[in-house]
Amino acid sequence: MRETKEKVGRVDSKEAAAGALGDGTILGISALAVRLAWVAWGRWVAGDTWEYLRLAKNLRFHHIFSMGETAASLAPTAFRPPLYPALIAILWWGENPPLISVMILQAVCGAATVVLVYLMARDYFNRPVALIAGLGMVFAPLSCRYTSVIMTETLFTFLITLGFFLWGREHFVRAGVVFGLSALTRPTMPPFLLALPLLALIVPAWRPYWRKYAIIFVMVATVSSVWIARNALVFGRFIPIAASGWGTNLLFGTIETKFTGDDVWTAVLNDPATRVDPGLNEVEADRAKMRKALGRIAADPRHWLYVRAKQYPRLFMDSGDYLLGSYNLTIGQAIREPRPLVILTKFAFILGNLALVLLAAYGMFAERARFVALSHITLFPIFLAASHLPMWIGDSRYSLPMVPLVAILAAVGLLRVAEVVGFALKRRAMFAPKDHDVGPGAGRATPVQPT
Q1: What is the spatial distance between Cα 191 and Cα 241, in angstroms, rounded to a whole number?
Q2: Mean pLDDT throughout 418-423?
Q3: How far is residue 234's CA from residue 281's CA, in Å, rounded to a whole number?
Q4: What is the C-alpha separation between 84 and 61, in angstroms, rounded?
Q5: Which of these ranges, 217-226, 353-362, 415-424, has the smallest mean pLDDT?
Q6: Is the CB of residue 242 less than 8 Å from the CB of residue 198?
Q7: 52 CB-near residues (< 8 Å, 6+ apart)
Q8: CA-to-CA distance for 228 and 234, rounded, in angstroms?
Q9: What is the pLDDT of residues 328-358, one digit of tens each?
Q10: H/E element holding 70?
């Protein structure tokens, strides 16, 4: 696993190029088949699905970005970013919502994400790393599951993975444009991309990259400025893409919920502490929640730390409940009944996620000498994990955007662990006693016979 590359890897030969094309094609087709199977047999509806469909319907039939349910209630909104509802509206050709069309497009985006993971790993590592990371992404269960629901996860993950791929190949303008589109899908990226030029100015190791990072951020700001300008014209105030998000998530992150279970959303939404004046508009309501959250944290910081420590593992804790269907039970119920299959599934998923995170952390440590050169792979998982320390974590889907990069790092870690284990076994075999050394006289000096 020593074949590594500091810069973007240009394939060294026609044979290598052909091999990369073949690998990528097989991985892409396999990923598409798996995701289409989820679309065919695993479709489901999330709570946010209806909001995206309502926005898309109003955009398609009334030409207004609104959450209103009737023609009389069509007031403009900035509650959600615009790109995903606009995409649904473009595909909405008849009276019924284009659920299957959107999901098929998401399956294509998911398959393309797998190919991008393979190419990024091939660029900066080697073929074994690329194949392991790509295969892991082909069957990644939670990523596949979100292909079959009307939610932003698949599109957003594809866009940022494409952006990181372009960044790795030093196409910074194009990377900035793609990241700008991702910001219009979910408002996660602008804080990360704003931090990059600041990081380059503060930390000497990143200083040579500050112009490149500045180019990316300027392009993101340029693309997203269209929607920011729309919000300013419509609402008369500065709204950075979406009116709701940071305040709501910070406040929800102060509410104590169960460590496990699927009812945490119901619990937090019904908690009186999360309510603000219903007469406030979207922007004022989110700011009121921000102030309320900061007040709760300041009033009892120890309890807030306890809540965060209890809630944070949910970011990485996918228990595979969705594969069990009607057989799903809590772990406690499954142990009491008992239900061996349920117990095995949940523990396999939990331990698998833990192994993935540990291998990725070890892979990052193993490549510490190239940490700066690998910034397009290493920095975002750290940022996303750190940004959720104070924020609400309803379930492990919040970690999905980092999964493609984590898959690459975990593949690196896995091969490094295999190297260490292989070296240890070789040493053990080298110093093990030979067959002819075993016996009553083994280890004794052989007397010299007189001549």
Answers
A1: 12
A2: 90
A3: 13
A4: 16
A5: 415-424
A6: no
A7: 80, 84, 85, 88, 150, 151, 152
A8: 10
A9: 887 778 888 888 888 899 899 999 999 999 9
A10: none
